Amino acid sequence: MELHDPYRAPARAVASKGPVTPVDMSGIAFGSDDTVSSAATIAAGYTSSIIAARWLATIIDSVVLLMIFVVPILVLDRAMAEKVIWLSVALLVAYFPVMETRFGGSLGKLATGTRVVNIRGERPSGWQSIVRTLLRLIEVNPFLMGAIPAGLIVLCSSNRQRLGDMLARTYVLRRADIGRIRRTGMARVAEPVWSQASVPVPPPLPPVPAAGDERWARP
Known about the structure:
By secondary structure, the chain is mainly α. 49% of the residues lie in helices and 5% in strands. The two termini are 17 Å apart.
């Protein structure tokens, strides 16, 4: 029979107050000086110079999109241009989603050293890029007010986001700053926090029989 250990307190079961839900902290990384580094905190530290970089990227992308649509009309004859016009439209629609999910940014962002990332500093998912592209029709439309609405929203946003970024939960960072998230994340990434109720509780030790107790006598 196992003897009772006087230095071991009896275990007590912890009552669960509901379903256990883990807290996702994988998007937050801590540096060696315990400073938090994430895409949001880095974007919040940017000055208005990031707006100039994004504006330049928008101009480059506008020229690229214009060439995709206009060059076939100028180079090909009318009959052939009418056949490939649908290909040009497909390229216009897929330009931003494909470039952002595959390379982290459009040709304009690649040229200006900026990238579209999620909170973890990774390339955006397909739905995130689609949300950004749909809102671009309102915020960055050359036939309306150009990139002025997006620029004003980014200037007033605490994390330098336009509406498309806010809804898609994406951020535009300088390429050199993305490594700050990955380096600190490799150094020490916070582990998920779980409720105490999810920790298995060992069973209590059996009681020690008192001397002369006949209930514990063997038959």
